[in-house]
Design goal:
about 0% strand, mainly alpha
Length: about 160
Amino acid sequence: MSNSVNQSSINSTLGDAFRIARIAMLAIASSLLFHVMIVEVVRRTVEQGPSQLSEFTRLAFYSVAFLSIVGSHMVRILMMRKPVSGIDELANRLKVTTVITAALSELPIVTGLLLFLFDGQYGDFYVLGFISFYLMLRNFPRLSQWESIANAQLGKFTPHETGQ
Protein backbone atom coordinates (compact mmCIF):
# COMPACT_ATOMS: atom_id res chain seq x y z
CA MET A 1 0.00 0.00 0.00
CA SER A 2 2.78 2.47 0.88
CA ASN A 3 4.53 1.58 -2.39
CA SER A 4 1.47 2.67 -4.42
CA VAL A 5 1.22 5.89 -2.40
CA ASN A 6 4.94 6.48 -2.92
CA GLN A 7 4.57 5.70 -6.64
CA SER A 8 1.66 8.12 -6.88
CA SER A 9 3.74 10.79 -5.16
CA ILE A 10 6.62 10.20 -7.59
CA ASN A 11 4.29 10.42 -10.59
CA SER A 12 2.67 13.57 -9.22
CA THR A 13 5.95 15.30 -8.38
CA LEU A 14 7.54 14.47 -11.71
CA GLY A 15 4.37 15.39 -13.64
CA ASP A 16 4.03 18.75 -11.88
CA ALA A 17 7.67 19.65 -12.55
CA PHE A 18 7.29 18.51 -16.16
CA ARG A 19 4.28 20.79 -16.72
CA ILE A 20 6.12 23.78 -15.25
CA ALA A 21 9.22 23.08 -17.37
CA ARG A 22 7.10 22.69 -20.51
CA ILE A 23 5.35 26.01 -19.88
CA ALA A 24 8.71 27.74 -19.28
CA MET A 25 10.12 26.26 -22.50
CA LEU A 26 7.06 27.35 -24.49
CA ALA A 27 7.30 30.86 -23.07
CA ILE A 28 10.95 31.14 -24.06
CA ALA A 29 10.27 29.54 -27.45
CA SER A 30 7.51 32.06 -28.13
CA SER A 31 10.14 34.78 -28.02
CA LEU A 32 11.47 33.39 -31.32
CA LEU A 33 8.33 34.70 -33.01
CA PHE A 34 8.76 38.04 -31.29
CA HIS A 35 12.30 38.34 -32.70
CA VAL A 36 11.03 37.50 -36.19
CA MET A 37 8.37 40.21 -35.90
CA ILE A 38 10.99 42.78 -34.85
CA VAL A 39 13.22 41.92 -37.80
CA GLU A 40 10.37 42.00 -40.30
CA VAL A 41 9.04 45.36 -39.06
CA VAL A 42 12.50 46.94 -39.13
CA ARG A 43 13.32 45.32 -42.48
CA ARG A 44 10.19 46.77 -44.10
CA THR A 45 10.60 50.25 -42.62
CA VAL A 46 14.36 50.89 -42.80
CA GLU A 47 16.33 50.90 -46.04
CA GLN A 48 19.23 48.45 -45.95
CA GLY A 49 22.61 49.18 -47.40
CA PRO A 50 25.53 46.90 -48.16
CA SER A 51 27.04 44.91 -45.32
CA GLN A 52 29.36 46.94 -43.12
CA LEU A 53 30.52 44.19 -40.77
CA SER A 54 33.78 42.34 -41.24
CA GLU A 55 33.79 38.59 -41.72
CA PHE A 56 35.59 38.28 -38.41
CA THR A 57 32.68 39.97 -36.62
CA ARG A 58 30.13 37.74 -38.32
CA LEU A 59 32.25 34.71 -37.42
CA ALA A 60 32.32 35.82 -33.78
CA PHE A 61 28.50 35.98 -33.72
CA TYR A 62 28.24 32.54 -35.32
CA SER A 63 30.75 31.24 -32.77
CA VAL A 64 28.42 32.33 -29.97
CA ALA A 65 25.64 30.35 -31.65
CA PHE A 66 27.90 27.30 -31.92
CA LEU A 67 28.85 27.63 -28.24
CA SER A 68 25.16 27.64 -27.31
CA ILE A 69 24.73 24.30 -29.08
CA VAL A 70 27.66 22.79 -27.19
CA GLY A 71 26.65 24.56 -23.99
CA SER A 72 23.11 23.25 -23.96
CA HIS A 73 24.39 19.72 -24.43
CA MET A 74 27.01 20.12 -21.70
CA VAL A 75 24.48 21.58 -19.25
CA ARG A 76 22.26 18.54 -19.65
CA ILE A 77 25.19 16.19 -19.09
CA LEU A 78 26.57 18.06 -16.08
CA MET A 79 23.21 18.59 -14.39
CA MET A 80 22.29 14.91 -14.63
CA ARG A 81 25.70 13.52 -13.70
CA LYS A 82 25.36 13.94 -9.94
CA PRO A 83 23.07 11.43 -8.19
CA VAL A 84 19.94 12.74 -6.46
CA SER A 85 18.56 11.89 -3.05
CA GLY A 86 14.90 11.76 -4.04
CA ILE A 87 12.18 12.60 -6.51
CA ASP A 88 11.85 16.23 -5.34
CA GLU A 89 15.52 16.93 -6.01
CA LEU A 90 15.37 15.12 -9.36
CA ALA A 91 12.22 16.96 -10.48
CA ASN A 92 13.75 20.30 -9.54
CA ARG A 93 16.99 19.49 -11.34
CA LEU A 94 15.13 18.47 -14.51
CA LYS A 95 13.07 21.66 -14.36
CA VAL A 96 16.15 23.89 -13.89
CA THR A 97 18.00 22.06 -16.66
CA THR A 98 15.08 22.67 -19.02
CA VAL A 99 15.01 26.41 -18.29
CA ILE A 100 18.79 26.76 -18.70
CA THR A 101 18.82 24.86 -22.00
CA ALA A 102 15.86 26.91 -23.21
CA ALA A 103 17.77 30.12 -22.49
CA LEU A 104 20.83 28.76 -24.28
CA SER A 105 18.61 27.71 -27.18
CA GLU A 106 17.46 31.30 -27.58
CA LEU A 107 21.00 32.66 -27.78
CA PRO A 108 21.55 32.07 -31.53
CA ILE A 109 18.47 34.06 -32.55
CA VAL A 110 19.47 36.87 -30.20
CA THR A 111 22.91 37.00 -31.84
CA GLY A 112 21.16 36.96 -35.21
CA LEU A 113 18.98 39.87 -34.11
CA LEU A 114 22.07 41.79 -33.03
CA LEU A 115 23.75 41.04 -36.37
CA PHE A 116 20.66 42.31 -38.16
CA LEU A 117 20.44 45.47 -36.06
CA PHE A 118 24.15 46.23 -36.55
CA ASP A 119 24.29 45.37 -40.23
CA GLY A 120 20.78 45.35 -41.67
CA GLN A 121 21.27 42.01 -43.41
CA TYR A 122 18.51 39.59 -42.48
CA GLY A 123 19.94 36.35 -43.93
CA ASP A 124 22.16 35.75 -40.91
CA PHE A 125 19.20 36.34 -38.61
CA TYR A 126 17.19 33.57 -40.26
CA VAL A 127 20.12 31.12 -40.29
CA LEU A 128 20.72 31.70 -36.60
CA GLY A 129 16.97 31.66 -35.96
CA PHE A 130 16.77 28.21 -37.52
CA ILE A 131 19.54 27.05 -35.17
CA SER A 132 17.54 28.37 -32.22
CA PHE A 133 14.40 26.64 -33.46
CA TYR A 134 16.31 23.37 -33.82
CA LEU A 135 17.72 23.71 -30.30
CA MET A 136 14.28 24.43 -28.87
CA LEU A 137 12.94 21.25 -30.49
CA ARG A 138 15.91 19.20 -29.37
CA ASN A 139 15.77 20.47 -25.79
CA PHE A 140 11.99 20.46 -25.43
CA PRO A 141 11.09 18.39 -22.36
CA ARG A 142 9.65 14.94 -23.02
CA LEU A 143 7.94 13.08 -20.22
CA SER A 144 9.25 9.72 -21.46
CA GLN A 145 12.83 11.02 -21.16
CA TRP A 146 12.15 12.32 -17.68
CA GLU A 147 10.72 8.93 -16.68
CA SER A 148 13.80 7.16 -18.06
CA ILE A 149 16.02 9.48 -16.05
CA ALA A 150 13.89 8.82 -12.96
CA ASN A 151 14.32 5.06 -13.55
CA ALA A 152 18.07 5.44 -13.84
CA GLN A 153 18.36 7.73 -10.81
CA LEU A 154 15.73 6.29 -8.47
CA GLY A 155 15.33 2.66 -9.51
CA LYS A 156 11.95 1.06 -10.19
CA PHE A 157 9.49 3.63 -11.46
CA THR A 158 6.04 3.35 -13.04
CA PRO A 159 5.49 5.87 -15.83
CA HIS A 160 2.47 8.12 -16.08
CA GLU A 161 -0.64 6.64 -17.67
CA THR A 162 -1.80 10.04 -18.94
CA GLY A 163 -0.04 9.87 -22.32
CA GLN A 164 1.65 13.26 -21.94
